[in-house]
Amino acid sequence: xxxxxxxxxxxxxxxxxxxxxxxxxxxxxxxxxxxxxxxxxxxxxxxxxxxxxxxxxxxxxxxxxxxxxxxxxxxxxxxxxxxxxxxxxxxxxxxxxxxxxxxxxxxxxxxxxxxxxxxxxxxxxxxxxxxxxxxxxxxxxxxxxxxxxxxxxxxxxxxxxxxxxxxxxxxxxxxxxxxxxxxxxxxxxxxxxxxxxxxxxxxxxxxxxxxxxxxxxxxxxxxxxxxxxxxxxxxxxxxxxxxxxxxxxxxxxxxxxxxxxxxxxxxxxxxxxxxxxxxxxxxxxxxxxxxxxxxxxxxxxxxxxxxxxxxxxxxxxxxxxxxxxxxxxxxxxxxxxxxxxxxxxxxxxxxxxxxxxxxxxxxxxxxxxxxxxxxxxxxxxxxxxxxxxxxxxxxxxxxxxxxxxxxxxxxxxxxxxxxxxxxxxxxxxxxxxxxxxxxxxxxxxxxxxxxxxxxxxxxxxxxxxxxxxxxxxxxxxxxxxxxxxxxxxxxxxxxxxxxxxxxxxxxxxxxxxxxxxxxxxxxxxxxxxxxxxxxxxxxxxxxxxxxxxxxxxxxxxxxxxxxxxxxxxxxxxxxxxxxxxxxxxxxxxxxxxxxxxxxxxxxxxxxxxxxxxxxxxxxxxxxxxxxxxxxxxxxxxxxxxxxxxxxxxxxxxxxxxxxxxxxxxxxxxxxxxxxxxxxxxxxxxxxxxxxxxxxxxxxxxxxxxxxxxxxxxxxxxxxxxxxxxxx
Length: 727
Fold this sequence. Notes:
Elements: E1 2-5, H1 17-20, E2 28-31, H2 37-44, H3 48-59, H4 63-82, H5 86-96, H6 102-113, H7 125-140, H8 146-162, H9 169-185, H10 194-212, H11 218-239, H12 244-255, H13 265-284, H14 289-308, H15 314-330, H16 335-351, H17 353-357, H18 364-375, H19 383-393, H20 398-410, H21 419-438, H22 443-453, H23 464-478, H24 484-501, H25 504-517, H26 532-541, H27 544-558, H28 567-578, H29 583-593, H30 608-623, H31 628-635, H32 639-646, H33 656-662
Antiparallel strand pairs: 1-2
């Protein structure tokens, strides 16, 4: 985040008054990596008086002078970027590639437009894959029947797959109803391959809706997906028994719903040629089905994804990074250059763990682990199986790992980096990949989903064997990581793994170490789940003072540019605890930090906590004798406006409730700012008895009415959970 002075005649830039104050904010504008030379000295050795002089000097310059300032800015940024190493530039392209195309921008805009629509069952692609594999394992073991398997798979595929769509919830529900009806009655799905088509059809619909946008009707979306089957798949299916080329083409087109996402004729032609090329090679070289499947997963899928979403070939970028570092070794470049290049690759892999983890679902050893854990998530998985997966993850960078081990054995250390630190950072990336792959496996993951639907903060989940293995591995690695480019991510991983086992001591140490780095603040450097996981752990333990302290720090992170997927749960629980003593403050917190009311974290998928928060805010506003819109308008006004124009200062005789009464309001509730909220729906001794009394949380016993035994002071006032606003 870089600031430069706003000059006369300059237009644009976001409002940053919240960050730097309303007196200084109007003089500044946020620049995309632009920093003029005359401000460098202020940044390096900050002096408030000198900074103010510079701002005053340039605040009133004319447009001509302003243009010369822009030239200086561009010259500075050019020389700065010119100093980056090749590996660093490739890393930037790798990490930012998803932001470099119009499709991504369009998807983000769609998400902003549906920020109030909560999908209570939203799950990412990894979650859907894991759930499907779990169902398959249960079916193979006879735990569920074939009919149950088909029904669960179909319903889950429809609802969970479509939960990823950035369209209005009402339209999404309409589309789901249409699919459920048509998939049960349309003759297209009654043929010999009907069951196979039923399994994939929701994915075809999702891609069609994603490509057509919010203006398309549900019938148009459905018709586009159906025409893909009728016009493309069925003709290939009818000739596949006589023609090997048709068979291969059908199998590839069947599994790749992403074809429906490709819009431009040029991109569609590129994708068609790619498939035809692989099919021809399969026929000419007499590939077996196993070979075709392997190439399909490892080569065709990434290529089609890149074409459909206009992405840079990230695998090629990583290969280029590796080659460049190995060239440095061959050319006997300086040790510092070699180590820095290797470290940048390690950081890149950690940042792209979400992308890399998707490959694990085609890893034979990981498939075996998932099948075992799907049947019994408490099963002890031998460490050797996890080690095998770690080895497979490292295969692409193994030459660099060997170089680093050789340096370490020879005692060759750089001026700033140690080979052991870089090896540990690679380990961090591999650990994160396995964690992301397994976090949706088992009943524990579903319990956390149910907790979130009931308003609780959802803790990260891992099967116990994975948690133990990864924790031990991480503890050995983190002590070597000192560079600030990786240290925060390592601390965040410690917190995430401790979150699984509720190891508060480990979480405390990691969170405090992180906050020391950022001088007690949550900034862009602070990686989730720091500090919200610790806040939730204290909350579960009944220590509301500490919980609120860390939730308030987490709210600082909501206003950064780092995506926090649990933002809705953070805001909701921070508001609920705040409402114990001050309902108005709880409302202000919601208005300032919730993506529904503000511009914070608009790119995250709405979660159940968001709709619960909206309902709770409506109840709090009603207690204050206002509608929600009135409460938002009045409570978000500055103290100065309240005093000068409205006379609603806390020291004024005209309090909010008196003003409302003069308007004819019938509100009679006493608005004591220290009163407990009678409508706070949360009681932290209880879990709503919907489903959860069947599956208690780990180490807890629920009473017959679905409640946990009372052992902590309640948050709510006189009401029980049976009569609260949400439940």
